[in-house]
Write a structure and sequence with these properties.
Strands 7-8-9-10-11-1-2-3-4-5-6-12 form a twelve-stranded mixed beta sheet. The chain has a six-stranded antiparallel beta sheet with strand order 13-14-15-18-17-16, with no helix packed on it. The chain has six helices and 18 strands. The termini are far apart. The chain folds into two domains: about 1-225, Lipoprotein localisation LolA/LolB/LppX (outer membrane lipoprotein receptor (LolB), chain A); about 240-360, MucB/RseB, C-terminal domain (Phosphorylase Kinase, domain 1, 2-Layer Sandwich). By secondary structure, the chain is an alpha+beta fold.
Length: about 350
């Protein structure tokens, strides 16, 4: 029991930390500690500001890379982990955990609109097939920078893993009691985040840094690295809020961004038990998404649906693409006005039941 509690706690904090490091902290406005190096400036930064340009570059590096990264946590008694990191110019990142023993074999994959985390010990795959918080945090950070709500300053240079890095520090103009200070070590040529430190009033909270890295043509990045991990008898775990936004389609009537496609054939006893409209206020208007959860009181499965922004005529003239896994299936269907809907099934139904369900979705 204690080992499981320790494992879950370490996993949780490392997940939060890594999400923090490769996206932007959601507490950027209220939880940075000011320092003499980041005294508030007058006026608002311009898009041509070198610091702003470098920050934008960090959010979307311009090349592929692979290396080993170390993450140190000083809170909760201190934790240390190493990961093999694969990243590409499409802002996709995969982390294979090498240590500690409790995380060895775990895999985390973050993409602009998807998230996977494979727990080796429990053989469970956490799945989120909707625009995740990474995109929202990145957009929020840039908004805060351009609105002058936070200050971005260059505070030095340093070599990390054999590459030159510019150190950017971000602080709020109006810090709170629980303020934190964040520094990014960014490769100015590629935009790769080489190191990150988070501190509070008591000192260092966490640090993450590459110990070695290969950039550009020397980094062998295969597309399959960013696909959902697949292992025998692996159980998918859709990451959904504990309570549905709407209990059924009737309750959600008039509140969804588009009319979802529904299966006419579902296993006996299954009905919709939850409906979500995914971050409609934060997402670009052309990328709405809906989650439908079906259950029979014992088992459940989930359908994720995302509307494509414009008619995709080239796809309409070809067979619909289908990617099948043991528990996750992707496919695309045409929608009214020539638009397309990308669908993802996650669940434990039999192959025959899944085939019947997919064929009946309209």
């Amino acid at each position: 029991m204690w080992n499981r509690i320790f494992y879950n706690r370490v996993t949780l904090h490392l997940l939060l930390l890594v999400s923090l490091l490769l996206s932007i902290p959601s507490f950027a406005v209220a939880q940075f500690k000011p320092s003499p190096l980041s005294a508030p400036r007058t006026g608002f930064p311009l898009p041509s500001d070198p610091n702003v340009q470098l920050l934008r570059k960090m959010l979307h590096p311009n090349t592929d890379y692979v290396g080993e990264q170390t993450t140190e946590l000083t809170e909760f008694g201190g934790r240390l982990s190493q990961q093999k990191v694969f990243g590409d110019s499409k802002a996709r990142v995969r982390r294979d955990y090498l240590t500690p023993e409790g995380l060895q074999g775990d895999i985390m994959i973050t993409l602009p609109n998807r998230y996977f985390y494979y727990h080796r010990r429990t053989n469970v795959l956490d799945v989120a097939f909707w625009p995740n918080e990474e995109t929202g945090r990145q957009r929020k950070l840039m908004q805060m920078v351009m609105q002058g709500r936070v200050v971005v300053e260059r505070v030095g240079n340093e070599r990390v893993a054999g590459r030159d890095a510019v150190i950017l520090q971000i602080t709020p103009r109006q810090p709170s009691v629980q303020s934190r200070q964040v520094k990014f070590w960014i490769d100015p040529d590629t935009g790769i985040l080489l190191k990150n430190e988070i501190s509070n009033t008591k000192g260092l909270v966490s640090r993450s840094y590459f110990t070695n890295i290969v950039v550009g043509n020397g980094a062998i990045i295969l597309p399959r690295l960013f696909e959902a991990p697949s292992f025998p008898k692996m159980l998918p775990n859709p990451l959904l809020p504990p309570q549905p936004q709407y209990r059924n389609l009737e309750e959600a009537q008039g509140k969804l961004p588009f009319q979802p496609l529904l299966p006419s054939t579902v296993p006996k006893g299954f009905q919709i038990t939850g409906v979500w409209s995914i971050l409609p206020a934060r997402m670009a208007a052309q990328h709405p998404a809906i989650i439908l959860r079906y259950g029979d009181g014992m088992e459940s499965f989930t359908l994720f649906e995302r509307l494509s922004p414009e008619p995709m005529k080239s796809m309409l003239d070809k067979p619909r693409p289908l990617r099948r896994g043991r528990s996750i299936v992707h496919w695309v269907l045409s929608a009214p006005e020539g638009k397309m809907v990308g669908l993802t099934y996650i669940g434990h139904l039999s192959p025959e039941q899944v085939d019947a369900l997919i064929a009946s979705v309209r």
